[in-house]
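Reagents: none. Just compute today. ATP synthase subunit a.
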Amino acid sequence: MAMSFFDQFASPSYLGIPLIAIAIALPWVLYPTPTSRWINNRLITIQGWFISRFTSQLMLPLNVGGHKWALLLASLMVFLITINMLGLLPYTFTPTTQLSLNMGFAVPLWLATVIIGMRNQPTVALGHLLPEGTPIPLIPVLIIIETISLFIRPLALGVRLTANLTAGHLLIQLIATAVFVLLPMMPTVAILTAAVLFLLTLLEIAVAMIQAYVFVLLLSLYLQENV
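Predicted 3D structure written out:
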């Protein structure tokens, strides 16, 4: 029984073909496309307003060179939110609970920010490895520590997103199982547990949105250091 709780995180397959590609590509079909009319409907207007507000807030601390990343970061934000929200529906699969997928997002984007910093301003980029005013005996130790912390950044990005979504899905499944078990024996306790489950579901909706925002926000902060 304990092992079956983790079956929801296994990548689904049909006839030996993994279906994670469909789970990744499907959210793009759900987005409404802008029309050629002068006046759009409410859904497209809300979508455009949300993306423009998010992009303006994200690009605010960056200089003009970092604004080239606006389309990439905004698209990644909307994509992660959609995948996380769809994963809360029953009988669905959440691709962002797979560490390999999250690392596939985190490592190339983090590496791109590092390469940009080393190409455009190598002195400043290397200067982050050694804080100003460091005593001479501590210089080798601090360089090693800062280098390790630099390479841990993509791992932290991927693990944070995976751990938060996985923990939330496990809690929802555990409490839902408790509701079904308690319902015939103690209906009052089962109703109270169902109320807790409803509140937890609302919390997981917020977590799904916040974790996508935090993922993109940290990438923008890494980009800010290197442009």
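The longest strand covers residues 13-14.
Action item: order primers for follow-up constructs.
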